[in-house]
């Protein structure tokens, strides 16, 4: 049975076939989907944009926590791909760059935690940021005694030698470091192996206003996530 009460979520066509009580197929693009699933996923996407944790989202929408957590992880994965695509298009337009070492709030200001820092290289194209994780250059120092000469020497070197190029000290790179630190504090700790996912989410949310985030993420969802 045909219905024009709804619109295809992929191509916008309004003439659809009803496959079941919840599923529709588009006459034009032949895609099949569930409006109930689509509505649920868009609600999860809105929570993601609003910086709600997976637990907060699951509670608000009365959904299973693992369902939300999986959706969040899928969104972070496609954001990595989105970032890499933009990077490939902008390799000739980076104007400024800076090397930065991230530590959670509880470890900042304490020299003994310096070698737990995660190195990040950020680059500026236009008013937007692209980030790359640096290799762990502290691995060989972590097992040395806390006050060893080698550790002290390397710490002094690190403070004096950074890969950086600024046209002005008032720029988006500095703003991004502040944004990143404040934003990551919300998560109360992130495993190092998962850091790249949150870094790319922060990069995306720094680069775009919420309305832009919604448009981009919904398009990425249709292209990569709908199953």
Q: What are the segments in which pLDDT stays under 50 over at least 5 consecutive residues?
A: 160-166
- Terminal CA distance reads 23 Å
User: H/E series, N to C?
Assistant: EEEEHHHEEEHEHHH
Give, in spatial order, the strands making up the sheet with the most strands.
Answer: 1-2-3-4
Helix % is 40-55%
Give the integer mean of the pLDDT values: 81
Counting helices, strands and paired strands, the structural category is: alpha+beta
Describe this structure in words.
The chain has 227 residues and is an alpha+beta fold. It folds into 2 domains: 1-30, no CATH class; 76-225, no CATH class. It has helices at residues 35-49, 54-61, 65-90, 149-160, 172-184, 195-207, 210-225; strands at residues 2-3, 16-18, 23-26, 32-34, 96-102, 118-125, 128-133, 164-165. 18% of the residues are buried. The model is unreliable at 160-166 (pLDDT under 50).
Summarize the structure in short.
The chain is α+β, with helices and mostly antiparallel strands and 227 residues long. The protein contains seven helices and eight strands; from the N terminus they run E-E-E-E-H-H-H-E-E-E-H-E-H-H-H. It folds into two domains: 1-30, no CATH class; 76-225, no CATH class.
Features:
single chain; 227 residues; alpha+beta
